[in-house]
Specification:
This protein is of the alpha+beta class. The protein has helices at residues 13-24, 40-43, 62-80, 97-107, 122-125, 146-159, 263-274, 320-337, and strands at 2-9, 29-33, 47-48, 51-52, 57-58, 85-87, 90-93, 116-117, 135-138, 142-144, 163-165, 178-179, 184-191, 211-220, 231-234, 236-240, 246-249, 281-291, 300-303, 310-314. Among the domains are: 2-44 and 146-198 and 301-350, 3-Layer(bba) Sandwich (FAD/NAD(P)-binding domain); 211-291, D-Amino Acid Oxidase, subunit A, domain 2 (D-Amino Acid Oxidase, Chain A, domain 2, 2-Layer Sandwich). The protein is globular, with a radius of gyration of 21 Å.
């Protein structure tokens, strides 16, 4: 029976980023994944944005998260010898004069200077964006091609015999961390299965508040004057990909957590898009996924208070690509060096 430092259960965004972080720190890792098709990682647009919300404030811990994620994803790309990290400005049209004044006021604060560019050319966007009140370009934004990143990392794990595609039966874990059917023993088993972990006997007490989201992929019917590489964001968002393909989104559904796409979601996304971009959007693909959010909107990490060889890294929610790198490293500090976890993210807050 082969022994590893860590068995990672789930190879979505959380499991992938944590596994790579631990490997970089010379820990032995084995990963199990059941290929769950409606995980958020399989559907996510992967946008990272340091300025969010109606009041356009800095996202939680932006000054820590965004420098860290840039270094992390650049290094990860180099390791996998591929490209999935795309840095792009995010153009945010103002919704009103009041919002414009608010943003102009806060932009004078030094802490916002790294994330806002008020000298952008609104006239460049005017032919294809509804921006009667002008707008602002947000710096240090962009997106991750999450599906590509996961696929390349899985290929690496398979090549190194560190991966098994199989459902995971938590009832077959014994006190020594052995999973006998799999002939694997791990010093610690870390659950990273997204919203599915709310059904676990170990983690059902945690404050998961999963949210379903749907996104569309397609083209704009008229490409005249449609010339932009920036992400456009106001209530909904428009993400330019390659070959004049765009993703647009998204929706939030807390009650009906299934994998089915809906006409209502499609209609809602198209309405947001048509209020943002002048040309008409025609969808060719619609997808749905379940985001592993939490009631207090903070991630979940730590070791079980009764079973200290079993842990969790989860609850990354709608900002997963921004949060995952920094907090995977933070969790690794806790696991390897016994450093204290931030109280906001530790599962000790939930006991």
């Amino acid at each position: 029976m082969k022994t590893y430092n860590y068995l990672i259960v789930g190879q979505g965004l959380a499991g992938t980023v944590l596994a790579y972080t631990l490997l970089k720190r010379n820990q032995s890792v084995f990963v199990i994944d059941d290929g769950y098709k409606t995980s958020a990682s399989q559907v996510a647009a992967g946008i990272f944005n340091p300025i969010t919300g109606m009041r356009m404030v800095k996202t939680w811990k932006a000054d820590l998260l965004f420098p860290f994620l840039q270094n992390f994803y650049t290094d990860f790309e180099s390791f996998l010898n591929t490209h999935f990290f795309f840095q792009k400005p995010i153009y945010r049209p103002f919704e009103s004069i009041a919002q414009q004044n608010h943003v102009l006021g806060q932009s004078a604060e030094k802490s916002f200077s790294n994330f806002m560019n008020l000298e952008n050319n609104d006239e460049h966007y005017k032919p294809f964006v509804f921006n009667e009140f002008g707008g602002v370009e947000i710096k240090n934004g962009g997106y991750i091609d999450v599906g590509k990143m996961l696929a390349y990392f899985r290929d690496f794990l398979v090549k190194e015999n560190l991966f098994l595609a199989t459902p995971f039966d938590e009832d077959k874990i014994n006190a020594e961390g052995e999973i006998k059917d799999l002939k694997i023993r791990a010093e610690k088993i870390i659950f990273c299965r997204g919203f599915k972990d709310r059904e676990s006997k170990f983690w059902s007490y945690l404050p998961f508040k999963a949210v379903k989201g749907e996104v569309l992929t397609g083209k704009f019917e008229s490409t005249e004057n449609l010339d932009f590489e920036q992400i456009i964001n106001r209530q909904g968002w428009v993400l330019p990909l390659e070959n004049s393909i765009y993703k647009v989104g998204s929706t939030y559904e807390w009650d009906k957590l299934d994998s089915e796409i809906t006409e209502k979601a499609k209609s809602d996304i198209l309405e947001k898009t048509h209020q943002l971009i002048r040309p008409h959007f025609k969808a060719s693909k619609q997808e749905a996924g379940i985001r592993p959010a939490t009631a207090d909107r903070f991630p979940l990490m730590g070791l079980h208070k009764i079973y200290p060889n079993i842990g969790i890294f989860n609850g990354l929610g709608t900002k997963g690509v921004s949060i995952a790198p920094y907090f995977a490293n933070h969790f690794a500090d806790y696991l390897i060096e016994n450093k204290a976890l931030d109280k906001e993210v530790s599962i000790a807050r939930c006991s």
